[in-house]
Structures are given as structure tokens and as C-alpha cells.
């Protein structure tokens, strides 16, 4: 069966075609990022995001059909992100998916966005096998999950306030870097001197697998105030201090989660998974901890349509019934354990 996947939960429009047939897999995927549109505002403007999804969906659908050589008539089901995310942005993708499915006479597969992220490593050339522990670190979420199989996710720990990517973005803003600031802050940190600015490691010794990152941002504000006029080198030192602190906490908790689970595989998903220092530290520790760490390809780390098509396909294969196209609702707030 050919599954069309639609992602529109935030500021990326993603469309993909995934075939469940033998020798199939991901046939094509296309993405439009709205980052440049939101840049001027220092963050995502929900109304602009919704309107841009409207503009992008049809061209992206045409593109994946052309790239895969498939026709609309071959689509057997339409998967789309039902939540969590921005209500208006979700509504655009859901309405598009439901209307298209109704016109084609095929069912729909509403998907949880985080389920897409958790399963995305299965799209890579070197996929992990169930069960594994996933460190999901994006702009909206920071969670440690035990992924037993499709639809079987156990929350091991999560952030009590800001998500890791959100902390990167807010700190980057404080340092005068653009939006989204995570990658820019990471680049600046490469020039920073180790331990020149030592920031707290929030909840490192909390004894559980939860995170808290909002205090780190406050520590940066305080440090910037203390310094008064900040030189370029001092800015880089602060970026380095921030990154070292957040990475140490993420690595320590992720390794602890793997050890507590008794499993040997760790998967890193979500935009912050692109962070080079996080990868360096995880790689360095994984050998001693005797675990294998998996990073999905960058294009599948951040939001994309392929992970939604895959999640829909795997859910049908696992026996979850598809929904008749037509009536629908989106779920802007939706705990993964509630699927
Ligand atoms: O998964 P994602 O694309 O979108 C969400 O679902 O949120 O993650 C985006 C987040 C942003 O906060 C961005 O600043 C962060 O991932 N990010 C990074 C890096 N690349 C992206 N954070 C730190 N270092 C990076 N290299
Ligand atoms: Zn995401």
C-alpha cells in the first residue's frame, strides 16, 4: 500500500510517499521550511505559519508524485499529523489530508507528531531494532522514552519547563543571535573556551530522568548582566558554557535511562540531535557504556513528512484501523501516552 504523509504542526510543511510493499520504503519526500519567513519576528508567528502551509501543500504533493513516478490514484491511505502543535497549522494539514482522502475514496491515518519522531530512526540506512531508548530533543519537547514497539511508548523522563531546543533558542536570542538560534549558538560555542564560563547543571543529581532548562537561561541573563559590555570572545565563552552544561545533563540522563532500561540501544531524535557537541559526548561515552547510539539522518531529525508517512504505515501494519475520510479534529495538546 502507498501511504501519503503530511506534516504541518509548526513551521515546516512536509509531504512524503511511503510504500509498505516488499522492496518499497520511502519513495519520495519534500519539505518547505518557513524559518526565513519567521526570522524577522524572532519566533514562529502561528497565523503566518498556517497561511504558508496552505500555499505549500499542493506544490509539495506534486513534487513527491513527480519524484516517485506515482499517481494520485495509487495512494491507499493518507497519514497526517493530528497533534500536538499549533492549532491553525495542524488544521491546514488535517483538512488537506481529509479532503484529499475523501476525494480519492481512501481512509486517513491521524498520527501523533512525537510518534513520528520516535519512529524516524527506522528510516535511516542503519536502523535500530525494537526495543530502544529514545532521547527526543526538539524545539517543543525533551523526553526520554522507552520504545518497545509501534504504539508502545513508555515515558521515562521529560522536561519540567523549557524544551532543550527552546533553551538553545532563548539563550541565542539573549546573545543577539538570530532565530532559530540553536545552530548559531552551537557554532559560536565552538570558539568559546572551556570552563571560562561555568554554568549550573540543572537536575544533574536529581536522581530521576527529568530535565529543567529554564534556570540555565536565567543563569545566562545574570552572567551577561554581570559582565556589562560583552566582548566577542566572552559571548563565545558564554555560548560554550551554556552548551557544555546542557549537553552534560542530556548525556548523563540519556545514559542513565539506557542503563535503567537494561537495553543497549539509544536513539537521538529531534532538532537538537543535530548538535555536534552532543554527538561527540554521546559517542565518547557510549563505548565505555557498551551501548550503540543511533542518529537519524539530519533531514529526518527535524520535522518532516517522511516520519509521518512511516508512522501511519507502521500503525496500519501493526493492526491499528484506518479512519474513514471526512470528519476530523486536531489535538494541539496531546500526551503521547494517550494515543
Ligand atoms: O525537531 P525540530 O526541527 O522541531 C521541533 O519539533 O521543535 O527542532 C528544532 C529545534 C530548534 O529549537 C533548534 O534551535 C534546535 O532544534 N537545533 C539545534 C541545532 N540544530 C537545531 N540546537 C542545538 N544545536 C544544533 N546544532
Ligand atoms: Zn517535531
UniProtKB/TrEMBL annotation:
Work out whether the entry's keyword set contains Phosphoprotein. Answer: no
Q: Which family does it belong to?
A: Belongs to the KAE1 / TsaD family.
- All copies of the Gcp-like domain together span 26-309
What's the cofactor?
Answer: Fe(2+)
Organism encoding this protein = Candidatus Accumulibacter aalborgensis
Q: Where is this protein found?
A: Cytoplasm
- Pfam families assigned: TsaD
Designated gene of the protein: gcp
The protein's name in its UniProt record: tRNA N6-adenosine threonylcarbamoyltransferase
Give the binding site residues for Fe cation.
113, 117, 303
Q: Which residues bind substrate?
A: 136-140, 169, 182, 275
Q: Which GO terms describe its molecular function?
A: hydrolase activity; iron ion binding; tRNA N(6)-L-threonylcarbamoyladenine synthase activity
Amino acid at each position: 500500500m502507498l501511504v501519503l504523509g503530511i506534516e504541518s504542526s509548526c513551521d515546516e510543511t512536509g509531504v512524503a510517499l511511503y510504500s509498505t510493499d516488499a522492496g518499497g520504503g520511502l519513495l519520495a519526500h519534500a519539505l518547505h521550511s518557513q524559518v526565513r519567513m519567521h526570522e524577522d519576528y524572532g519566533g514562529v508567528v502561528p497565523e503566518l505559519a498556517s497561511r504558508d502551509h496552505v500555499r505549500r501543500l499542493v506544490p509539495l504533493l506534486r513534487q513527491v508524485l513527480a519524484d516517485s513516478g506515482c499517481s494520485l490514484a495509487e495512494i491507499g491511505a493518507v497519514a497526517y499529523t493530528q497533534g500536538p502543535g499549533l492549532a491553525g497549522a495542524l488544521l491546514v494539514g488535517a483538512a488537506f489530508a481529509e479532503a484529499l482522502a475523501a476525494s480519492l475514496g481512501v481512509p486517513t491515518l491521524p498520527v501523533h507528531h512525537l510518534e513520528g519522531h520516535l519512529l524516524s530512526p527506522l528510516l535511516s540506512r542503519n536502523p535500530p531494532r525494537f526495543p530502544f531508548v529514545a532521547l527526543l530533543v526538539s524545539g517543543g519537547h525533551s523526553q526520554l522514552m522507552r520504545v518497545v514497539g509501534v504504539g508502545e511508548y513508555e515515558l521515562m523522563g521529560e522536561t519540567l519547563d523549557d524544551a532543550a531546543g527552546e533553551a538553545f533558542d532563548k539563550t541565542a536570542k539573549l546573545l543577539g543571535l538570530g532565530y532559530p538560534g540553536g545552530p548559531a549558538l552551537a557554532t559560536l560555542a565552538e570558539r568559546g573556551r572551556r570552563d571560562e564560563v561555568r554554568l549550573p547543571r540543572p537536575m544533574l543529581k536529581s536522581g530521576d530522568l527529568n530535565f529543567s532548562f529554564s534556570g540555565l537561561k536565567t543563569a545566562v541573563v545574570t552572567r551577561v548582566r554581570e559582565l556589562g559590555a560583552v566582548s566577542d570572545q566572552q559571548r563565545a565563552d558564554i555560548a560554550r558554557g551554556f552548551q557544555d552544561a546542557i549537553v552534560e545533563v542530556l548525556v548523563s540522563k540519556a545514559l542513565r535511562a539506557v542503563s535503567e532500561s537494561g537495553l543497549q540501544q539509544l536513539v537521538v531524535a529531534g532538532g537538537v540531535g543535530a548538535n555536534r557537541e552532543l554527538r561527540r559526548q554521546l559517542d565518547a561515552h557510549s563505548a565505555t557504556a557498551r551501548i550503540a547510539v543511533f542518529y537519524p539522518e539530519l533531514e529526518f531529525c527535524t520535522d518532516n513528512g517522511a516520519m509521518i508517512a512511516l508512522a501511519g504505515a507502521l500503525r496500519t501494519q501493526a493492526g491499528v484501523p484506518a479512519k474513514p475520510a471526512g470528519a476530523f479534529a486536531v489535538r494541539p495538546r496531546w500526551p503521547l501516552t494517550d494515543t
